[in-house]
Each structure stands twice: as structure tokens, then as C-alpha cells.
Design brief:
The protein is an alpha+beta fold and 642 residues long. The protein contains 23 helices and 15 strands. It has a six-stranded antiparallel β-sheet with strand order 3-2-1-6-5-4, with helices on both faces. Strands 12-13-11-14-15 form a five-stranded mixed β-sheet. Helix 11 runs antiparallel to helix 13. The N terminus is likely disordered.
Length: 642
């Protein structure tokens, strides 16, 4: 937008001025963060009204939040795209040096470092040597060899764990040598991150990313470099396998027969690799991967979150598929986390290339699961942010609120219930408590997504905003939610519910009040020893009048003595007056008959009828107190002028 155009927009009358317009244009052309201050500064320079400047400030904050979210998504998409592209490189015929060079280039680009390089173990000499470098300018650095335990790379190779230093020459955790330090000094490196290349339990090399200035590498960057290292190790392993295969073929006399057999196997492996690459590119799921491998291996392949523990642990430790009775099991893991396993049923004998095919499918499955988890976590955060904004009433524009909810398949104009949920079991330490809260939030977010609602972590627990289905009550929803969440996290979860609320987009303050009511019900449940249960204010009798936000007196009276009132109106009886006199007379039938001027048997018959209408426990202390309160409230209501 030009300066004159922007001035014209600023000078327009208040009702027609669109504060969002300059920021939408900045978002559209991907402007830098500093550019978002210019519309506000220009409005102030032009003497704009306080209302206009406030609107611009608000629009600027929203635009910066959108820009930050878009940048985060672009970054995650770039990372996943690079991993998928590298996995695609592994799926077909390739030169291992070209694949390793591509991995190093992508690692350097995504982490934004000055240099990236990869070293491999030399079994003959017992040290490691530089295999691939990207961004290096020093010849001595490119020819370095690191002994076991020497330098940061030697420490990574020795311990099989990632290591990072933000200042190489001041770090004394690893053994410095004159040769290595001279090479690092020639290259001008300061901050270095190294991750191991693993084949099963063995370290075959190290992948590095380094900067010529001090820098702190974040956890996500370490995990990303670890993923590239896993792909590099797979490329080397596959190249070694192909070399071994060619050597074996060259030494066999029955060339024609073996070539035919091997060609069929390789063709089958190439087929599954092509299918897996296609699945990744078009966004397939883990069960699609299992179905594709089933066709190629001519068997039944299943993805299981819970497989035979011993076989899965062996597969994860060795990095290969292992035989388990008549099946083959390949662990699906990422970053040290076990996600499940691919199980090939009824194939006790498996060709080595088919075994590798199953292992590659497990690796692709882990990438898909990580991508799905990343997308789910992003959606959970968006749902939580919208609910936080509703509770704190930060965004009062009904149109924007409806649009944000619609993108999450939620309808803020429907009838909803606000539910406050909390775990009841006390954790032994802070870490366990934090983990339990994360499990509760994750389960609540999944429930909210399936029910077209919202969920957020708040006040040491979780708050949900769920639509109320036709025919359901707030109480039924609270109890079903407590049961669902308790089953999901394997712990007792207590849930307090608000009364049903409508028109949340038009009046966000209703969400604030409903959340407060839900929390009061939650506290009441815990004080009454009803942990693991769910309830709304209407379930607490006269206590519910104190818990409810709207003080529904008529509803309390109807729930407590409504059947007696209805009976009197239909039959023309005097049960309500008899009840009033009975309590006034200290619950004495003899004094009640004097008060009503009737026979004592008449009093007894009427009280018997009351018992059939209200239940056998109507004279218990708690019920009697509620009935007396309802009688007085009804008397006040009928005596009040209309």
C-alpha cells in the first residue's frame, strides 16, 4: 500500500475505516515484523483519534500473531518436506554420495548454520574421517581425522549421544587435540552440534551443524538433525547392502538363475519404495503404508501400538526387523520414543531385501506419525487459544470469533456447556504432575475435536466447551466427560459443569461466568468427596443455588416439590398446605392435625401420599431441609406482586 493510499485510509471517517487493511496487505506480501509498526506510527503522525490508533494497535497484534503462526507452520512444513524429500531419495536408485551431500545441504539450510558436515568411522584405522562437507572453506578442516574420544565428534561417537557446545574452545567436556583445534580454528567455528549416525547399537559416523559465532541450538533443531542422521545411516546401510549383494552375485556360478531371483526381489523392493514415496507425498496414513507393504510382501502387515514387548525392544535396539514365532516385527520409533510396530503375519521365512522393505516401511510410518502428531498438536493449540480468548474476553468481535470457530468446525451460536476438569490423584513430584496434566489436556483436546468443541489447559486442570446435544442435560454431559477422560488417562477425573449457555460469540462474558460456575461445581464435588464424578449446579439441591451463576430459584422449587404442586393442582388436594403445617409443627402429626383442624388419620394419609410423590427419604435431614427451603421460596414467589 502506498503512503498516499495509507494516508487516505487513515483520514476516512471512523465507522468506514478498516484497521485491518494495511496489516492484511503486509501479511499478503510477507513483510518483516518491523513493518507492522508503520501504520500505527503514520496514524499518530497524522493526528489520528485515540480510537483509531487503538484499533490499529489491536489489529497489529492480531496480524503479528497470525504472521508468527504462519512462519511456524512454514518452518515445520519445510522441515517435514526436507525429510520426505530425503526419504524419497532413499526410495529409488541413487548414488549414496549424492544422497549424503543432499542430506548435509538440507541440514545446513534448515538449521541456518554456516557449515554442515558428516564424518564416517574407519574400521581399519579405528578413527573417523570427513566424508561430506557443505560450507567449509578450510582445506585442513576438510582433511581432519578424529580418534575415538577426541574432540566433540569423538565424544559423540564414543557415547552414541548428541552433544552441543555454544563455544568450542571454552568447552572442557571433551578432549581437545592440537590437530583438531587447529582445523576448527582455521574454519573459524564457535558453536557446534553433533549427532550420531546409528546402525542398530553401533555408531558409524557423526552428522554436524556448526556456526562461526556463539549460538544456542534448540531442542527441535537437535531432533531435526537427528532425523537427518537416521536417514543418512539408512542410505549408507542400503548402499552397503547393495554392495554386498553385487559381490555375492559376482561370485556365483549360476548367474542367470540368481539374477532372475534377485531381480524379482529388487523389483518388489523398488515397487514398495515407490508406493511408500507416493503415500508420503499425497498424505497417506499408517494403515495405507501397511496395506501397500502387504501387497508387495504377499502377506498381512498390521500397525500395532501394542506388540510383543520383547520382540519390539529387540527390533528397536538392533535397528532391524526380528522374527517372532511365525511373524516378523519391525519397531516404529522416533527420537528414542517407541510409537508402535509393523507386524508381518505368517511369514517365518523372509528374504533379506523383503526384511529391509519391512524396516523401511517402519521408518516411513514413524515419519507419518510424527507429521500427524505435529498437525494434531497445532490444532490443539489453536483450539486452546480460542477458548482462552473467550474466557478472558479478549476478542469481542463476534464475526472474528465465529470465523475462528468455524475453521475448527465449532459453532458458537449453538447451546454449549463449560466443563472444568481436574485430576484427583496427587503426583509424587512436580514432573509426574506436569506429565499427568499434559495427558489430561491431550485427552480433553481429542474429545473436543471429535465433539466439535474447544479445550484448553487452565488453572491446574483443563476446561472444555462442548455443544449440548438435543435431549442431553449438563449433568449427563459432565458425567460422561468424567468417565471418558478418566478412562483415557487411567486416573480419576472430576468434572464440574455450568448450566447450558447460548450466544457465546455475541457475549463472551457468558463464557467467563459459565467457567466460574463450572469451577464452583468442581470444588463442591471435591469437598463432598465425589472425586471422579461429574455434576452441574442443579445436582446439589439448595447448595446448587449458591453454585449456579443465575440463581435458578424456580427451577430449584420445581425439582424439589414440583410433583406435590402438580398433584394438588390436578386433584384439588391440600398436600402442600399439609407439608407446610407439618414442618411448622415440628414434624408432629398430632400438632399438625390441630393446625389444620383435621383428624390425625387424615394427616397420616396425606403424608403417606407425599412420600409416594417425593420418595421414601423425604423426611431425612438433608431432604427435609431442601423441602422446607423450597416451600418458603414458593411462598415468597407467590406472594410477590406480579
Amino acid at each position: 500500500m502506498s503512503r498516499d493510499h495509507l494516508k487516505g485510509a487513515m483520514a476516512a471517517p471512523g465507522p468506514t475505516y478498516d484497521a485491518d487493511a494495511p496489516f492484511l496487505e503486509l501479511l499478503a506480501r510477507g513483510a518483516a515484523a518491523e513493518a507492522y509498526d508503520r501504520p500505527v506510527l503514520l496514524a499518530r503522525a497524522e493526528g489520528g483519534s485515540g480510537e483509531r490508533i487503538a484499533a490499529l494497535e489491536h489489529a497489529k497484534l492480531l496480524a503479528l500473531r497470525v504472521r508468527s503462526e504462519l512462519e511456524g507452520r512454514r518452518r515445520r512444513e519445510a522441515e517435514l518436506s526436507a525429510l520426505f524429500e530425503t526419504a524419497h531419495d532413499l526410495a529409488g536408485p541413487r548414488d549414496v554420495d549424492a544422497v549424503l551431500q543432499a542430506i548435509v545441504q538440507r541440514a545446513r539450510s534448515l538449521l541456518g548454520t554456516d557449515i554442515a558436515y558428516l564424518s564416517l568411522h574407519d574400521p581399519a584405522r579405528g578413527d573417523t574421517y570427513m566424508r561430506v562437507t557443505e560450507g567449509s572453506v578450510a582445506a585442513r578442516f576438510q582433511q581432519l581425522r578424529l580418534g575415538m574420544g577426541e574432540g566433540l565428534g569423538g565424544l559423540v561417537a564414543q557415547t552414541a549421544r548428541p552433544y552441543v557446545t555454544d563455544d568450542y574452545f571454552r568447552d572442557d567436556r571433551f578432549r581437545h587435540t592440537t590437530t583438531i583445534d587447529a582445523g576448527v580454528r582455521d574454519e573459524g567455528l564457535v558453536a557446534i552440534l553433533g549427532v550420531p549416525l546409528m546402525l542398530g547399537p553401533h555408531v558409524i559416523g557423526v552428522l554436524f551443524a556448526a556456526d562461526r559465532r556463539a549460538r544456542v541450538f534448540e531442542r527441535e533443531q537437535i531432533a531435526l538433525l537427528g532425523s537427518f542422521a537416521a536417514l543418512a545411516a539408512a542410505a549408507i546401510d542400503t548402499a552397503n547392502l547393495l554392495t554386498e549383494t553385487r559381490s555375492a552375485l559376482a561370485g556365483l556360478e549360476r548367474a542367470n538363475e540368481i539374477i532372475r531371483d534377485r531381480s524379482a526381489v529388487i523389483e518388489r523392493a523398488s515397487d514398495v519404495h515407490d508406493r511408500l514415496a507416493e503415500l508420503v507425498l499425497r498424505g497417506g496414513g499408517v494403515h495405507d503404508v501397511a496395506a501397500a507393504v502387504s501387497q508387495v510382501l504377499d502377506g498381512t502387515v498390521e500397525f500395532l501400538e501394542s506388540a510383543p514387548a520383547a520382540a519390539v525392544e529387540t527390533s528397536r535396539a538392533e535397528g532391524h526387523a526380528v522374527r517372532h514365532q511365525q511373524d516378523w516385527v519391525a519397531a516404529v520409533a522416533a527420537g528414542g520414543e517407541l510409537l508402535g510396530a509393523l507386524v508381518l503375519r505368517g511369514h517365518p521365512g523372509l528374504d533379506p531385501v523383503d526384511q529391509r522393505t519391512l524396516e523401511r516401511a517402519a521408518m516411513v510410518t514413524s515419519l507419518l506419525l510424527l507429521a500427524r502428531r505435529s498437525a494434531a498438536e497445532a490444532e490443539q493449540r489453536v483450539r486452546g487459544e480460542l477458548l482462552d480468548d473467550l474466557i478472558e474476553a479478549r476478542d469481542r468481535d463476534p464475526r472474528l470469533l465465529r470465523e475462528r470457530a468455524a475453521r475448527l468446525h465449532a459453532d458458537l451460536d449453538a447451546t454449549h456447556v463449560v466443563l472444568a476438569a481436574r485430576l484427583d490423584a496427587a503426583a509424587s513430584d512436580a514432573d509426574q504432575e506436569a506429565a499427568a496434566r499434559r495427558r489430561l489436556w491431550s485427552a480433553a483436546s481429542h474429545l473436543a475435536a471429535t465433539r466439535h468443541g474447544l479445550a484448553a489447559a487452565r488453572d491446574g486442570g483443563t476446561v472444555l466447551l462442548l455443544p449440548l446435544q438435543h435431549g442431553d442435560t449438563a449433568t449427563e454431559l459432565a458425567r460422561s466427560t468424567a468417565l471418558h477422560l478418566g478412562t483415557a488417562v487411567h486416573e480419576a477425573v472430576t468434572v464440574g459443569a455450568s448450566a447450558p449457555v447460548r450466544g457465546l460469540a455475541a457475549d463472551p462474558d457468558r463464557v467467563v461466568a459459565a467457567y466460574a460456575e463450572g469451577r464452583r461445581c468442581l470444588d463442591a464435588l471435591r469437598l463432598l468427596g465425589r472425586s471422579g464424578d461429574g455434576a452441574a449446579a442443579e445436582d446439589f439441591g439448595f447448595l446448587g443455588l449458591l453454585l449456579a451463576g443465575d440463581r435458578d430459584v424456580s427451577g430449584f422449587v420445581d425439582r424439589t416439590i414440583g410433583r406435590v404442586v402438580a398433584y394438588d393442582e390436578r386433584r384439588g388436594t391440600d398436600l402442600l398446605r399439609t407439608l407446610d403445617a407439618y414442618f411448622t409443627s415440628g414434624m408432629s402429626p398430632a400438632r399438625t392435625k390441630d393446625e389444620l383442624h383435621v383428624h390425625v388419620n387424615t394427616v397420616a394419609q396425606r403424608l403417606e401420599r407425599v412420600g409416594r410423590l417425593l420418595g421414601d427419604d423425604w423426611q431425612s435431614p438433608a431432604r427435609a431441609l431442601e423441602i422446607q427451603l423450597a416451600l418458603r421460596l414458593r411462598r415468597l414467589a407467590t406472594a410477590a406482586p406480579h
